[in-house]
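SEQUENCE-TO-STRUCTURE ENTRY
===========================

Subject: a protein chain together with a token-level encoding of how that chain folds.

Sequence line: the amino acid chain in single-letter code, read from start to end.

Question of interest: how does this chain fold, as expressed in backbone structure tokens?
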Amino acid sequence: MSVLIAFVWANALTIISWVIRIGALILVPFRRSPAAARGWLLLFFIAPLPALLLFLILGSSQHPKRRRKLFEKLPDILRRSVADAGIATGEARAQLPSNVEPISALASGLAGLPPVAGNEIELLEDYGNAIDALVTEIDRAEHHVHLQYYIFADDATGRKIAEAVERACKRGVTCRVLIDALGSLKWSKAVLARLHAAGIEAHRILPLGMRRNASRLDLRNHRKIAVIDGHVGFTGSQNIVNAQPSPGSPSNVELVIRVTGPVVSELQAVFLGDWYLESGAVLEGDKIFSPASAEGSISAQFVPSGPDYPIGGIDLLFVAAMNLAREEIVIVTPYFIPNGALISAMTSAALRGVKVRIMVSRYLDGYLVGFAQRSYYAELLRSGVEIHLYESGFVHAKHMRIDRNLSVIGSCNMDERSFRLNAEASMLCYGPEIADRVASVEQRYFDSATQLEKGEWAQRSLITKALENSARLLSDLL
């Protein structure tokens, strides 16, 4: 017995390591995609003790129990909001062409919000103009201002918005603000103190900490939503932060949409849902929703997504849309780490003659993510997919266009983090009127980009290829 005890003590670390590995082999595959499970198991078998610590912090894709219980009531709140807004039936509901009806039906199934007609949509691609447009609408507000952002910085841009909200509050306008606890971590204390001092109700989204119901570090609310008086809405990729987030970094290139019409009520419904999840309060009242009257001629549909939604991620919608493409697919994204279904959709589209173009930045703001992203280029180039590297800044815009039928503009990147871990928001815009305007924005990107050539890309060094392939093994965890 003493010999056995001595053996166990002498080999304790090895024994513990193998117990962890075997336990991971049993537990990790539950509720995960095969690719994500493989990534975790690779970590466990290479470094079991660090992997266990990381898994305990990040391993569950579920929010705390308290939040899940709140979320169970959210579908009823959204249904009530849609009914109150008058967009579920009648003239507001869009009658779409047969070539996009399957996408709209899938979007409704994923998020519960219908396509609505009669919207006016303005594309705001100039960073400063987008901020100024938001300030203008806040200064016009008469009843309420609702802001929800991943980043609300205490910098020149953040102070400009905060001052506008303070002016609105002094006029008697009800102002509510949500900011993500991690995205705004550097500034949240100062921003919230300022807003609270002005009498503005504001909350951190998914607050961090050591409490039992604290949120996981990497489960974030990445949405960017502004609603003013229930009549004007803003969404897209741009946060409330300076265009150049840090000294020495390139300026962000963004795309924001300003919307009026019935679809604003869908932005409002999503904000009300997130407000309920953070504050526990259900916001109601005659002026929360504006009458669902036509403001323009565009049909649109707002699609929230995230880990709270049990059926599937927004990638289901992206794949379905790509499979319907007949002429052209354009994807603009800062982070491009596609899953197998997206790779198959892009590859099959290119092979059947669809022109598939991907716009990413030459500059990447993370080494590991950058290596993982570049590991996908070679196989896509072989299939005929075009990859363009933007040279004049960091493309933080996130949008996709399918032919002249569908444009998707929002906060969602093309990676598993956006598909599985982040709460995101995407605006689906139907028809050629908006598609042609999006195509004009894309062309300005292409004019400032370099197309990656297959032969040139194949000549990169063996060390570079090895680093890319190693990072790719972890891509489903990034």
Summary: The chain is about 45% helix and 20% strand. The longest strand covers residues 116-124. Residues 2-58 form one domain. Residues 12-27 form the longest helix (16 residues).
